[in-house]
Structures are given as structure tokens and as C-alpha cells.
Design goal:
Largest sheet: 7 strands, mixed
CATH superfamily: Domain of unknown function DUF4159
Helix content: 25-40%
Low-confidence stretches: 1-21
Order of helices and strands: HEHEEHEHEEEHHH
CATH architecture: 3-Layer(aba) Sandwich
Strand content: 15-25%
Number of strands: 7
CATH class: Alpha Beta
Radius of gyration: 16 Å
Oligomer: single chain
Number of domains: 1
Number of helices: 7
Shape: globular
């Protein structure tokens, strides 16, 4: 690896007690290709605040924006990626993201509609030996602080298909979780943005909290 994971991240991944870990941030991945990586600007702020309230975390709501090829990637225990359009990783960026993930980092991808065909190609460059697999409803990510016995909640219609949770599993560890036909990121946004029913927003935030808890403790 080009850079060791930060001490704070090592603490999280070792399963440290929430309250004993210094304030940390979730990172929003900035990528090239023309896709709107900046979509859902209020989502990570709201998710961080929800986790602080319900999980006892100390996440800074002022989330970080980090480029794929940056050494700063390793400062964040979890990276979030979203958008509607094209994503391109250079060889160096793909290698950097791979090193981050195999070194203990975690990537959450939220399809904001139209991302699927682009993100699959981009992640194939990161892990050419891996394919996305649909996670069974029994997977621990659905059974953290909040129970989702039927898998992901359906937040936005998109193509009207059932929501699916896919993962990339490297040497037995889930390094990337991808919500498809679900749109958790939209569900985390301020109510005024999409005007989703509050019960639906709560489900999205609860599932997001599960992802955070899983990423920080597994």
C-alpha cells in the first residue's frame, strides 16, 4: 500500500467503543467523467447527524469531499459515491481506491438513477477479479442497529424494480455495498428536496446507519 490507514480508522475497524473515538467524517468521492458526484448535497450531513443521535457516533456533519486518486482517501473509514451519469477512473485512481478498500476502507454506492452501467464498469477496473453479488437478506448489514428482514427499503421508484443490495467481497470481507433501485441517498436529503413521507425518510436513514455501523465495526 502507498499509505497506511490512519490511526482513527484502525480504531474503528478494531471495533472501538463509539464514544471513545475522535470526531470523524464520511467522505464523498469526487470522480471524473462528467457524472454529478455532487448530487444530494444534504444527504451525508443528515446521515451523520442521525448516526450521532441513534448510534452514539461522533461524526462531523461537515462531510469531506475527496478525490479518487488522493492520499486523503485513507483518512476516512467510509466513502460514499452517488450520481446519475458517467464515471471514469484512471489507472492510478483505480489502484488508489483498490488499496484503500483492501486496506480496511469501505465504499457505499447509492444509485441516484442511471449510475448502474457506469459504476459497474468503473468498479471492474478497481477489482477486475470480482463481480457484484446480491447480498442475501440474512447478511449482517441488514441487521445492525435496525432490522431490515426483507432487505433494502424502496425509497424512489426509478424503473419500478425491487430494490437490491449488491456487494463486492474481497477475501471474505465486504468492501463495497451498492444500493440499486433504492436511492438511499435521496432518502437522506432534507425533506424539502424530495418531500418523501417522513416514515420513508426514516427507513432510509436507518438503513444508512446500518451501513455506517457495519463499515466501522467489521
Amino acid at each position: 500500500m502507498k499509505k497506511l490507514l490512519s490511526f482513527g480508522l484502525v480504531l474503528w475497524l478494531a471495533g472501538a467503543v463509539w464514544a471513545q473515538v475522535p470526531t470523524m467524517k464520511i467522505g464523498l468521492l469526487k470522480y471524473n467523467g462528467g457524472g454529478d458526484w455532487y448530487a444530494n448535497p444534504t444527504s451525508l450531513k443528515n446521515l451523520s447527524e442521525f448516526c450521532n443521535q441513534h448510534l452514539g457516533t461522533s461524526l462531523d456533519p461537515d462531510y469531506a469531499t475527496v478525490e479518487v486518486g488522493s492520499a486523503e482517501l485513507f483518512d476516512y473509514p467510509m466513502i460514499h459515491i452517488t450520481g446519475h451519469g458517467n464515471i471514469i477512473f484512471s489507472d492510478a485512481e483505480a489502484e488508489n481506491l483498490r488499496n484503500y478498500l483492501i486496506g480496511g476502507g469501505f465504499l457505499h454506492i447509492s444509485d441516484n438513477y442511471g449510475l448502474d452501467r457506469f459504476i459497474r464498469l468503473a468498479m471492474k477496473k478497481v477489482f477486475p477479479e470480482l463481480d457484484f453479488v446480491e447480498l442475501p437478506f440474512q447478511h449482517p448489514i441488514y441487521h445492525q442497529a435496525f432490522e431490515f428482514p426483507a432487505g433494502l427499503p424502496k425509497i424512489h421508484e426509478h424503473d419500478g424494480k425491487p430494490p437490491q443490495g449488491f456487494g463486492l467481497i474481497y477475501k471474505g470481507r465486504l468492501v463495497c455495498f451498492y444500493d440499486y433501485e433504492c436511492d438511499l441517498g435521496d432518502g437522506w436529503e432534507d425533506w424539502e428536496v424530495h418531500k418523501d413521507p417522513e416514515a420513508l425518510r426514516q427507513k432510509a436513514l436507518q438503513m444508512g446507519a446500518n451501513i455506517v455501523q457495519y463499515a466501522f465495526t467489521h
